[in-house]
Amino acid sequence: MSQKKGKIIAISAPSGTGKTTIIKNILGNMPELVFSISATTRKKRYNENEGVDYFFLTEEEFLQKIEKNEFVEWEKTYDYYYGTFKSFLAENVENGKNTILEIDVKGALNIKSIFSDAALIFIKPPSIEVLINRLEQRKTESEEDLKKRIDRVKMELEIENKFDYVVVNNELSKAVCEVEEIIKKVINKE
Ligand code: 5GP
Question: Whose CA is nearest to atom 8 of ligand 1?
């Protein structure tokens, strides 16, 4: 009998929705899940680590990897490149590992067009006002980058209805539980 393939769970959310915190909590609670570490040309934040949160590349390195067809999907968002490694994802799926992607909305739809049984989860803020407030408080972006992130929110919220599941992050622990329940359902589905 051939081995059951791993499921792909793509999680998207507007910037500042708390998606990274939710994913970190879930990976802590469900250590059997694999996190797909993306490549990016964005600068490393003070609380991030190379090869843990992202592989931080120069634009030249990233473009070379596009040339070599190393990404299953990639996007340019807020002037920076972000991409999912093809070999990493394929290997995990083949080995039956359930893999979480933290990815922008367009990347998630691209993944679904390639892996039709990927589950797409959209995490949404309680309101745009709350979101803008969270983004301003976290102080990880320059004013210019912050404005770009806020400008993008409307487009992201419009794509929400293309996702399989939508979770509102009103209260972190509740949102973590809800996403975990969805992931368990997806994993156990034949
Ligand atoms: P951040 O700079 O806040 O870490 O991420 C910015 C956006 O890029 C977020 O929406 C995040 O989910 C997305 N992102 C992270 N990795 C990837 C990836 O591999 N591919 C795509 N398309 N988007 C990604």
Answer: 104
Whose C-alpha lies nearest to ligand 1, atom 3? Answer: 15
* Tokens found for residue 71: 């990404």
Question: Going from the N-terminus, what domains does the chain have, and what CATH number goes with each?
Answer: 8-188 (3.40.50.300)
Ligand 1 probe mutation, 46, 82, 89, 151, most atoms within 8 A of CB: 82
Paired residues of 140 in beta bridges: none
Read off the pLDDT of residues 32-60 as tens digits, 9 standing for 90 and up.
999 999 999 999 999 899 999 999 999 99
| pLDDT of 149 | 86
Token pair for residue 186? Answer: 């997806």
Phi/psi for 124 (5° steps) reads: -120, 145
CA 164 to ligand 1 center in whole angstroms: 19
Sheet holding 80-85, edge to edge: 54-56, 38-40, 80-85, 71-77
* Distance from C-alpha of 182 to C-alpha of 180, rounded to nearest angstrom: 5
